[in-house]
Design goal:
Distance between the termini of chain E: 80 Å
Order of helices and strands of chain E: HHHHH
Number of helices of chain C: 12
Radius of gyration of chain C: 29 Å
Structural class of chain E: mainly alpha
Oligomer: heteropentamer
Bound molecules: heme-A, dinuclear copper ion, copper (II) ion
Strand content of chain E: under 5%
Largest sheet of chain E: none
Number of helices of chain E: 5
Structural class of chain C: mainly alpha
Chains: A mainly alpha, B alpha+beta, C mainly alpha, D mainly alpha, E mainly alpha
């Protein structure tokens, strides 16, 4: 059985899905997809929460803070830029996957780095945006339910991106030390694209549709 | 070939037991006597409508129950393994299924339910019908209910009372249900189903009493410490009695007579001590801002009303003695008890109950006044309690 | 089993702990009216409880001395723990390293002397310098310096230990990796990510609103472009790659520091930028700029 | 696949291996765990069977805890005006009872069976991610202990198990109980998500050759549905709990009506999770019963495709009915109407199951063994609960019934009479397979009858009480309300249940003692059963299958033993002894134990305490979590040093860190050698995710 | 891709399919990327539509945006995430999650009256109906009879 592994590089990248699982799909990949399917419900819930609250900055008694909707403070040109950045990072991610499939470790590292850096830029942009809301617009997390749900949603997405960036960088580090498996890169890539997809939704539903 | 007598006998006995028990239950549990909250003894047309749905539903559920359970007993006894049977001989036929049969018992219940669903829809749509309803606003709070009657439709309530609402027999009543803090649920089982009181929303329950009576109710959505004791009553009066009640409730009670010294002192004490939360129209100051009793104000609760009629979030005591119960119906105000609805209660006041309350409210009902939930214990002296009681008795 | 080497450290830890308690108790009592006063007035409980609860309840007099002693005890205990765990100074493992025939007394320590270069002393010295400078200049530097020192201590210890863990340098290196990578990689990754995010957001905050959009996309396009350019070359030289990375890092660092120092832009008077003008001419246009000044007043800046 | 075939003989199973004495590792406590026996072997295990057993033991412990709380409830309510518990304490007790029973008894007990049996039933050697399996156990346990520690740290949660806002907000519940609820459930939710993903992948990916989906045993099928439900339901409650935590700890106002929040959001999110959750609790028991009834009726399950299909249908329909818990909430007539109708029809697939079980027994030759008794009990009792469920699917009727003891009766009939009875049957059924000896049959019958009688005495009267208007969650009632008699009956019933559980515990102890004195192995196939797990020796060897079976039919094992004659009657075609596996494994290679899951899990409650009391406590927690994750990722899932010496990883170039970039040729070599060493080893490293 | 991978039930592991084919080439990825960028640019442009065209165009912006969003979503999922090329099982897994999410949350939003949200700062709309029109001169509900 194991000689199969030597047959060609092609097989080597997926050493474990040959003749081993019932569906022919590796456990990790299937597991990641199942997890992503589950994450749909998570982000769905957060997005719904935002939708319900977005027009309720709450001018009723007892409210503390700002009575404006978050959407009044959006800086669409800036956020579009960060959206483009996330798209770029998705591209660099697939390029990384293609590199590792080719066995090109050098380019794998190059693309991993650029993906992580782009992710970092996106996060930097988000911090900038949050700071702007808080400092310049006076709209904090507890200002009103609309802003709370906005920060909770984008914050949760941000946490996903942070985790993604850290996974990418760790992957980079591991690629120097030990062997790296194409499968692992691909699975991290799936996660990364999912985060991108979620941003596609958030950008349209939250930012562009007032 | 097999002797199945035993199986039939057992099945028969089980069926008999079930039927007898069922009969006993059906004839017994519905009786309202001694069970003030029973759901099976409707006294209003909405609860009757519900009953009309429940009965066929229960009947069909009962039939399915008997079929399945008796069938189970039969199958299990009939096909039990007997002592003379050995493995490998006369083994069962290996039946893997029967698609027709299975489709049958997929479709049959579905059809049955579809038929019932029609009644269901019908009843649901019926629940919100009302003609010329009397509107009463109900506000749930930890852990008592307030009622407001806006008789002239000017937006400002004309009667504010607690615990006990009065309605005329035969007229639709629309209870508009709000909450002042957490979710409660308004429920007078004899008259209608439940409806939650949700802070920030106004819900409605429509009901109509078909006979005179004092109908018990209970908060049924878990609302914290004293949820279990958050009770209320609706007293249904004849239209004439209802008019009498209205008149009495809209005229202010007389000031205590000067020779009733205790009561006069009680009034002073009341204004000094109790008006922080309680209101007696015309006596206590009205301009105080609402006591920060709860943090979930209804949009119009506290704003308009506080200034005119209520000091804080505690029962308005103006017509305390017009009621037959207080503290959410836990205690009676009159010695004769409160089970018969009277427009203007008659009888000897039960001062012991009032004193018991004033002595230590938390003994009657667990509350948490430190967190602004409920009435604190003021450690009143017996003398003060006497005075206050004397004063409260004048509030009729 | 508690190994020989670690015993000393445990001892030191215990002594340190006792000293810390005694010190805290005595100084605490002193601060509250002197020892005899405390004993007579029943404050004894406070002065005992104080050091026991690390000053949470009760009294601790001189916090700094107390903390130093406590930290000493803590460090000693941790080192002792390490040594126990790694069986340093354990007769059996020494014997194992040096082969049969030796016993712990005649073990040749040269055999287990560390070999190879280590950068940690330099980093340590640098961190120490930072602390010194920081004491004079800013708390941030002290913090960074201390952090550096901690890192050095840990890394150095582990390295020193690993180099004499067995007599096979290969295995030793593997051991070190096995132990340290789970800590190094996440820390490095996080530091990397945080650095990018933090510095970038400083730069963005320093420029104008439109500027921010331009800057961020520019940086991204540059990163992206350089990556594409590099990958399109048939043979990637390592030095080029490293050079590009370094250059990027330096630029980001410089920009971030500059941005941080110049501070966040002030939304109102940012003369000369398109943004200032447009907000004057076209009005709110979806952004409640008219509100900005009022809301600004109410706010405590969180950054 | 987790386990590869290797040409060397297995060395792992015997425990004390004279050949390889424990070489002292220079890493001391940081070394890879090796223990195969003793408590250490349980702490570091990644074996699905050990994990399953630990789930079982822990959940049984929590059954006693939750049951103890239930007994307190019943004692308090036994007479009107009882002073045993204060209102405050009572509220904590019933909340903790509900949460404990749901999240710490029924769900993990189902997990116990799922973990133990799914790999066996599909012919696998372990689950797809063995270390993740250990992780989910430890996280769940950490969360459960964390949650119950609230008793000692300021009082338990007191918001009811569905914890409606705004009563659960800081304003009205200023204590820490509800924080424990929120964070405890979040932690347990993480554990369950991990396990659900794991088991979903296991069922899809680890089946033995020939085991297509429609040849899987019904138990595996039902658990598969449950895992999928979990995968989708847990994130919803995670959202709700996150929002609640933000409200309570970070000053948001998602559920605070005074600040524009909407209490309905909580209700919806909770029940979107909550209703699938009730099927999550009952379907595993349905699965067990579907295994037990055919065995003791000596007939195949009636209508296998319908059984599977109805399970899937229940799973799907379960997503469209959640608001039937909110009929009285005032959500509006149209919504009530829609949800009332959808709820009605969920009775259909469940009915199919009940009737198919009866059809399975029909014409069979029923042996009243203890597992069978419990299964029959389930069929009878669940029907009662299901029918009362249907009566409150009619929304107007429900407005009279909701929040009364009628509901309490309903859900105990489905939860106790469904889930718990089924699992009790499961315990008796699979006990010989798990532990190599029978539970006492006669004591078991005592257990069953006591339980059945006690159960009906406890919860039967609650129907009457509820219809007579007794509301739930009331800490007391007055004598004029007319609830006294049935409450007393119910309390007596509860103690009979307690007695039955004591009988069960006695049974466990005594049957074990008896077995110790006079060991009698029940053999691979004590019940003459049908599915694959009965093909292997009892107790299950560590490697499960010496040789992975090739499956040709549904009920493969049965068909290897029996055929039928021209009348369709059962005839034997092979002796059991000839069909079961003899235990001489040749080529098995098992995943190695690991500490990291435990380390990671330990960090979670620390973070929880940190959030509640003082953030500094979270620091060690985070460190543990991060160290756990990375330690795990860097640790090969199969210990290269385990047992058979250094084989796999030595080919791997031991690159000094970050040296020069490898030239393309080197890269290839690297990849090849890596995979050479790792075709199998790397196999379950996805695990590391 | 072999039939074994396509059909869940035929995938007898005794004889599983060969290795699956790999996704697009780098060049194809670039094309998709530029497509995505273009779509996003289009999306962003809606922000200025009322300035550029006239105010009415904002109305069609929402459906346009939603369509573009869905297209982008599937471009990323199908190509970047290889769903198009991988085993259909993965597609099904993901779609089931997506569909459950959409179904559940759309229903929940509807029940919470999201679509009719009046935008008031108070709750969307208390489900109490306005007082039935009632005519003082007639005993029946409804508006007064003519005349
Ligand atoms: C294992 C858990 C479980 C299961 C399986 C069920 C099953 C069902 N439940 Fe239950 N339910 C709970 C656990 C469960 N429930 C819990 C815990 C609560 C309370 C939560 C709380 O408030 O704390 C609750 C509450 C609850 C309510 C809300 C009551 C209220 O609070 O007002 C409703 C309302 O519709 C309901 C309905 C149903 C229905 C229709 C089914 C159906 O699935 C039942 C279907 C089964 C049958 C019908 C029997 C067999 C069928 C036949 C023999 C065929 C023929 C039948 C007919 C033609 C009718 N349940
Ligand atoms: C999931 C399963 C489950 C199970 C198995 C049970 C089991 C029991 N339940 Fe529970 N129950 C719930 C789930 C469950 N419950 C839920 C979800 C609620 C709603 C909570 C809420 O409203 O928020 C509830 C609520 C609930 C109430 C309503 C409380 C109220 O509304 O005020 C009552 C009242 O009688 C009750 C009783 C019981 C009893 C007597 C048992 C018995 O069957 C218990 C049997 C077990 C034992 C008797 C243990 C035996 C112990 C020993 C033998 C040893 C003693 C132990 C020690 C000394 C440590 N339960
Ligand atoms: Cu109010 Cu319960
Ligand atoms: Cu439900």
């Amino acid at each position: 059985m194991s000689d199969l592994a030597y047959e060609s590089l092609e097989d080597v990248e997926f050493p474990d899905d040959i003749h081993t699982t019932s569906t022919g799909i590796s456990n990790e990949k299937l597991g990641m997809w199942v997890y992503l399917a589950s994450d749909c419900l998570l982000f769905g819930g957060m997005i719904s929460t935002y939708l319900i609250y977005k027009n309720r900055p709450g001018e009723i008694a007892g409210l503390s803070g700002n009575t404006h909707k978050v959407s009044e403070y959006f800086d669409i040109p800036f956020t579009s830029m960060t959206s483009f950045i996330l798209l770029m990072s998705s591209l660099t991610m697939v390029l990384a996957v293609n590199s590792v499939i080719r066995g090109d470790l050098t380019r794998l590292r190059l693309w991993l780095t650029s993906t992580a850096v782009l992710g970092g830029l996106f996060l930097g942009g988000q911090i900038y945006e949050f700071t702007n809301f808080v400092v310049n617009d006076g709209l904090g997390f507890t200002s009103n339910v609309a802003s709370s749900s906005f920060f909770a949603l984008t914050g949760l997405h941000g946490v996903h991106v942070v985790v993604g960036v850290i996974m990418l960088l760790s992957m980079l580090a591991i690629s120097f030390g030990t062997r790296i498996r194409a499968e692992a890169v691909e699975v991290v890539g799936l996660y990364w694209h999912f985060v991108d997809i979620v941003w596609v939704l958030i950008f349209t539903i939250v930012y562009l549709i007032p | 070939m097999r002797n199945n007598r035993k199986s039939y006998v057992i099945t028969g006995i089980c069926l008999a037991i079930v039927l007898v028990l069922g009969y006993l239950l059906v004839t017994n549990i519905g009786s309202p006597v001694g069970r003030p909250l029973t759901t099976l003894s409707p006294r209003g047309d909405k609860s009757q409508a519900i009953q009309n749905l429940i009965i066929p539903v229960f009947a069909i559920a009962g039939v399915v129950f008997i079929l399945v359970e008796i069938g189970l007993v039969f199958v299990v006894t009939r096909f039990r393994r007997r002592s003379d049977e050995v493995d490998g001989k006369d083994e069962p036929v290996q039946l893997h299924g029967n698609t027709k049969l299975e489709l049958g018992w997929t479709i049959a219940p579905a059809l049955l339910l579809a038929v019932l669903a029609v009644f269901n829809v019908n009843t649901i749509l019926q629940m919100d019908d009302a003609t010329d309803p009397l509107e009463v606003t109900v506000i749930g709070q930890q852990w008592w209910w307030e009622y407001r009657y806006d008789l002239d439709n000017d937006g400002a309530p004309d009667i504010i009372t607690a615990t006990e609402a009065a309605i005329p027999v035969g007229r639709d009543v629309r209870f508009k249900i709000q909450s002042n803090d957490v979710i409660h649920s308004f429920w007078i089982p004899a008259l209608s189903g439940k409806m939650d009181a949700v802070p920030g929303r106004t819900h409605q329950v429509i009901l109509q009493a078909n006979e005179v009576g004092m109908f018990q109710g209970q908060c049924t959505e878990y609302c914290g410490l004293s949820h279990g004791l958050m009770r209320m009553q609706v007293k249904a009066l004849t239209p004439e009695d209802y008019q009498i009640w209205l008149t009495a409730m809209t005229t202010s009670p007389a000031q205590p007579e000067p020779k009733n010294e205790l009561a006069v002192q009680g009034q002073t004490l009341f204004v000094a001590q109790c008006s922080y939360c309680h209101q007696v129209n015309g006596v206590t100051p009205t301009s105080k801002s609402p006591y920060p009793y709860s943090t979930v104000p209804d949009p119009d609760y506290g704003k308009t009303v506080a200034i005119t009629m209520a000091s804080g979030n505690a029962p308005n005591l103006t017509h305390l003695m017009m009621r037959q119960h207080f503290v959410g119906g836990l205690l009676d105000l009159y010695q004769e008890g409160g089970s018969v609805a009277q427009a203007i209660p008659e009888g000897t006041p039960d001062t012991n109950n009032i004193k018991r309350w004033l002595r230590n409210p938390e003994d009657v009902k667990p509350m948490n006044p430190n967190n602004n939930q409920g009435m604190p214990n003021y450690n009143l002296s017996e003398a003060q309690i006497e005075q206050l009681t004397a004063y409260l008795l004048t509030l009729k | 089993m508690i190994t020989r080497g670690s015993k000393y450290f445990y001892g030191a830890a215990a002594v340190g702990l006792l000293m810390a308690f005694a010190y805290g108790m005595i100084t605490g009592a002193n601060n509250n009216g002197g020892l005899s006063e405390v004993l007579s007035s029943g404050g004894l409980v406070n002065s005992i409880v104080g050091p026991l609860t690390f000053g949470y309840k009760g009294w601790v007099g001189d916090q700094i001395g107390y903390s130093i002693l406590l930290s000493f005890a803590g460090v000693m205990a941790v080192i002792g723990g390490f040594l126990t765990a790694f069986r340093d100074g354990d007769a059996e493992s020494l014997i194992q390293i040096q082969g049969p025939g030796t016993n712990s007394d005649n073990a040749d320590l040269r055999v287990v002397t560390p070999q190879g270069l280590s950068y940690w002393p330099i980093v340590g010295a640098f961190s120490f310098g930072l602390v010194l400078v920081g004491v004079a200049m800013s708390g941030l530097l002290v913090g960074i310096g201390c952090l550096g020192l901690v890192v050095v201590v840990v890394e150095w210890t582990v390295r020193a230990w690993s180099e004499r863990a067995t007599d096979d340098p290969e295995t030793n290196r593997a051991l070190r990796k096995k132990l340290m990578h789970p800590i190094e990689i996440p820390v490095a990754a996080t530091v990397g990510a945080v650095a990018i995010v933090f510095l970038m957001s400083r730069i963005l905050l320093a420029v104008s609103k439109t500027g921010a959009a331009i800057v961020i996309i520019l940086v991204a396009v540059i990163v992206f472009g350089v990556a594409i350019f590099l990958s399109s070359r048939p043979h990637l030289k390592r030095s080029v790659l490293v050079g590009a990375l370094l250059l990027g890092a330096v630029l980001l660092l410089a920009g971030g520091i500059a941005g941080g120092i110049s501070g966040p832009r002030e939304s109102e008077h940012h003369s000369g930028t398109e943004e200032g003008i447009s907000s004057l001419t076209s009005g709110p246009s979806g952004h409640a700029s008219s509100n900005e000044s009022t809301s600004l007043d109410r706010l405590t800046v969180e950054y | 696949m987790a386990i590869i075939e290797d040409q060397r003989p297995l060395e792992l199973t015997t425990g004390h291996d004279p050949v390889a004495p424990e070489a002292p590792s220079p890493l001391g406590v940081f070394a890879r765990p090796k223990a195969n026996t003793g408590w250490r072997s349980w702490v570091n295990t990644v074996d699905h069977k050990k994990i399953g057993i630990m789930y079982g033991v822990a959940s049984f412990f929590f059954l006693l805890v939750g049951g103890f709380e239930a007994l307190l409830i019943r004692l308090q309510l036994s007479v009107p005006g009882n002073q045993l518990l204060s209102a405050d304490l009572y509220n904590q007790v019933f909340t903790m009872h509900g949460v404990t029973m749901v999240f710490m008894v029924i769900m993990p007990m189902a997990s116990a069976f799922a973990n133990y049996l799914i790999p066996l039933q599909i012919g696998a050697r372990d689950v797809s991610f063995p270390r993740m399996n250990a992780l989910s156990l430890w996280i769940w346990l950490a969360g459960a202990i964390f949650f119950n520690s609230s008793w000692l740290l300021g009082g338990g949660a007191d918001g009811g198990w569905f914890n409606y806002a705004p009563n659960a907000g800081v304003t009205f519940s200023p204590g820490t109980g509800i924080d424990f609820y929120a964070i405890g459930l979040l932690i347990m939710g993480i554990g369950s998500t991990v396990s659900a993903v794991n088991l979903t992948v296991t069922v899809l990916n680890m089946r033995a050759p020939g085991m297509t989906l429609m040849k899987m045993p019904v138990f595996t099928w039902m658990n598969f549905v449950v895992q999928v439900l979990l995968v989708f339901a847990l994130p919803v409650i995670t959202v709700a709990l996150l929002l609640l935590t933000l409200d309570r700890m970070f000053g948001a106002a998602f559920f605070d009506a005074s600040k524009g929040g909407d209490p309905f959001l909580w209700e919806h999110l909770f029940w979107i999770f909550g209703h699938p959750e009730v099927y999550i609790m009952v379907l595993p028991a349905f699965g067990m019963v579907s295994e037990i009834i055919p065995v003791f009726s000596r007939k195949p399950i009636f209508g296998y495709p319908f059984m599977v299909g109805s399970g899937i249908a229940i799973g799907f329909m379960g997503w469209g009915v959640w608001a039937h818990h909110m009929f009285a909430s005032g959500m509006g007539q149209l919504s009530v109407l829609a949800f009332s109708l959808s709820t009605l029809f969920i009775a259909v697939p469940t009915g199919v199951k009940i009737l198919n079980w009866m059809a399975t027994m029909y014409g069979g030759r029923i042996k009243f063994s203890v597992p069978m008794l419990f299964s029959i009990g389930l069929v009878g009792m669940f029907t009662i609960g299901g029918l009362s469920g249907v009566t409150h699917a009619f929304a107007p009727a429900d407005t009279q019934q909701t929040d009364t003891y009628y509901i309490v009766a309903h859900f105990h009939y489905v939860l106790f009479g469904g889930a718990l009875l089924g699992m009790m049957g499961g315990l008796y059924f699979w006990w010989p397979k798990m532990f190599g000896h029978f539970l006492g049959e006669r004591t078991g019958k005592w257990h069953f009858w006591l339980m059945l009688v006690g159960f009906n005495l406890t919860f039967g009267p609650m129907h009457i009480l509820g219809l007579q208007g007794m509301m739930r969650r009331t800490y007391t009632y007055t004598s004029v309300q007319g609830f006294s008699m049935w409450n007393m009956v119910s309390t007596i019933g509860a103690f009979i249940i307690a007695l039955s559980l004591l009988t069960f515990m006695g049974n466990v102890v005594f049957s074990y003692r008896k077995h110790r004195k006079n060991p009698v192995n029940p053999g691979a196939d004590p019940w003459d059963a049908r599915s694959l797990e009965w093909m292997i020796p009892s107790p299950t060897p560590e490697y499960n299958f010496a040789e992975i079976p090739v499956v040709e039919e549904f009920d493969e094992f049965w068909h290897r033993k029996y055929g039928h004659d021209e009348n369709g009657r059962l005839v034997r075609i092979a002796k059991t002894e000839d069909v079961v596996e003899s235990s001489d494994p040749v080529t098995v290679h098992l995943p190695s134990p690991s500490y990291w899951p435990l380390v990671l899990a330990l960090g979670m409650p620390l973070v929880g305490y940190g959030l509640i009391f003082n953030l500094w406590w979270a620091v060690p927690g985070v460190i543990l979590i991060v160290a756990g994750i990375y330690g795990w990722v860097m640790e090969p899932s199969t210990d290269p040093d385990a047992g058979h010496g250094h084989d796999d990883h030595h080919g791997e170039p031991d690159e000094p860190e970050a040296t020069e970039l490898a030239a393309p040729e080197t890269v290839e070599a690297e990849l090849v050698s890596a995979s050479a060493g790792s075709t199998g080893v790397t196999a379950e490293e996805g695990d590391s995710k | 891709m072999s039939a074994a991978v396509t059909e869940l039930d035929d995938d007898s592991p005794v004889n599983p399919g060969e290795h699956h084919t790999h996704g697009p080439t780098d060049g194809q990825y670039f094309k998709i990327f530029f497509l995505l960028v273009g779509l996003t640019a289009l999306e962003v442009s809606t922000y200025w539509w009322d300035d550029i065209f006239n105010a009415d165009t904002k109305k069609i912006a929402v459906p346009v945006l939603l369509t573009l969003m869905v297209i982008k979503f599937f471009l990323v999922a199908l190509y970047f995430m290889h769903l198009k090329f991988d085993s259909p099982l993965l597609k099904r897994t993901f779609y089931v999650g997506m569909i459950v999410a959409i179904f559940v949350y759309v229903v929940a939003l509807s029940v919470m009256n999201f679509w009719g949200d009046s935008g008031t700062t108070h709750f969307n709309d208390p489900p109490i109906d306005p007082p039935a029109p009632f005519c003082a001169t007639s005993s029946k509900p409804g508006p007064c009879p003519a005349g």
